[in-house]
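Please check this protein record:
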Amino acid sequence: MEPQTADRTQLPSTPGPLASFVRFVVCGGGIGVLSSFAVPLVAMTMPWAVANAVITVASTLLCTELHALFTFGTGRRPGWRRHLQSSGSAAAAYAVTCAAMFLLHTVQSSPGMLTEQAVYLTASAFAGIGRFLVLRLFVFAGTHKDRRPAGTVVALPRPTLPRTAVSTAC
């Protein structure tokens, strides 16, 4: 008798909220750090604002791929709809950090670098938590419920009719 082997088509279970959040921070933070090094390198060949935009778009696309496959365990790559939703949440996070810095400079005309960093990092943390919630609860919600590969045939149970008394008399 052969030993039973695991089904190779079975996908790992969806990570829980804490595991997803840790993965979100690692993926997003890792790509953010790599992006911070990439922008100045790309800026050597084009204006800084253009280099920043190119790297931002590329890093957002890469993060969405990683979040779909790794962070939220959907088992499939995101489509354009999820890319657009994720980009929208990234734009909202960007707006939050810009608003925080604008508010800081409105309240205090020339804040120190430490104050600016504290406000920026705090706003980034809140924006990141908000973005995580949007991605988990809306963008990638429900995608893990049915993760069979495309083209999988599912056998449905045959309906059974209730047994009734059959009259044999004519």
About this structure: The mean pLDDT is 82. The chain is about 60% helix and 0% strand.
